[in-house]
Write a structure and sequence with these properties.
single chain, mainly alpha, two-stranded antiparallel ribbon
Length: 225
């Protein structure tokens, strides 16, 4: 009887060790998020203040908030410095109605490479990804992580198809594989594949590597628009 139980007990032991390892990894990631976001907010406070002044040189609110899909499908208000004119949504509809090429580009990428709605300071913020710094507050609140899948709006979730289960399993990130692997030069299908790959293979070391690569991309100027 004992001989029959040993393989079963071994399997249970492996499962328990896997669960413990996963819990430790999740705790380490959350600690990195908490201490990392708090430290960055303190260190970058002067930069955040300066950027806030620049954003307010154009009419409109300081921050742009949009509902994004979080872990387990919970919606949250994702924060960014405003980079567009105040009536951006209304102008988008006008742009798409009058230009089939722009409509196709928006349907494909959910953004426009040469978007006339973006302000002068907004172009700089997008190119350097500095518009996303307010998301440090999202990380601090537990809505996002420093590293994770790209936060998406609810309409985009259907484009993930079966891969949506991987996206919904974790908190979306301020940065991730997509952001350090070509970003806007990567088509949507590849973005989904990168998000899924990250969730399946994620670990503390991978997060640290992505964060270091993100710093290099920001310093270099990035390829955002």
């Amino acid at each position: 009887m004992l001989e029959l139980l040993i393989p079963q007990l071994s399997r249970r032991s492996v499962i328990r060790r896997g669960a413990v390892s996963s819990a430790i990894s999740a705790s380490a990631k959350r600690m990195l998020d908490l201490f990392g976001s708090a430290a960055l907010l303190l260190v970058l406070a002067p930069l955040l203040g300066g950027l806030a002044v620049l954003v307010k040189t154009s009419p409109g609110p300081l921050l742009f908030t949009q509902q994004r899909v979080g872990r387990h499908g919970r919606m949250f208000a994702c924060l960014k410095f405003r980079t567009m004119c105040p009536d951006a949504d209304a102008r988008l509809q006008q742009l798409l109605e009058g230009d089939d090429a722009l409509k196709a580009e928006w349907a494909r990428d959910q953004k426009l490479r040469n978007d006339p709605r973006v302000t002068a300071i907004g172009k700089f913020l997008r190119k350097t990804s500095l518009d996303e710094l307010p998301q440090l507050f999202n990380v601090l609140r537990g809505e996002m992580s420093l590293v994770g899948p790209r936060p998406i709006v609810e309409e985009e979730l259907q484009r993930y198809a079966r891969a949506a289960v991987w996206y919904l399993a974790v908190r979306p990130g301020m940065t991730g594989l997509w952001q350090v692997s070509g970003r806007n030069e990567v088509d949507y299908a590849r973005r989904v594949a990168m998000d899924s790959y990250y969730v399946r293979r994620r670990n503390f070391a991978m997060d640290c590597v992505i964060l270091l690569q993100t710093l290099r991309v920001v310093v270099r100027g990035g390829d955002g628009y």
